[in-house]
Amino acid sequence: MADIVKGPQISERFDLDDIRKIRTYNAARYENMTPAEIVADTKAGAAELIEIMRKRKLAKV
Predict the structure, then answer these.
(1) Is the sign of the CA dihedral 44, 47, 52, 53 positive or negative?
(2) What is the three-class DSSP state of 35?
């Protein structure tokens, strides 16, 4: 069974401690990945974020 890693708990203030939590979380996720897998994962996350931003922009118009 695969280990499921929960995302970090981010505060509403989004301060330096939250950034550290995110970096630690990503480091653990990427520990056994190849550089190509890390790039693919980052691109997939970026594509999702870009789509959300695009929808918000269309909703504001």
Answers:
(1) positive
(2) helix
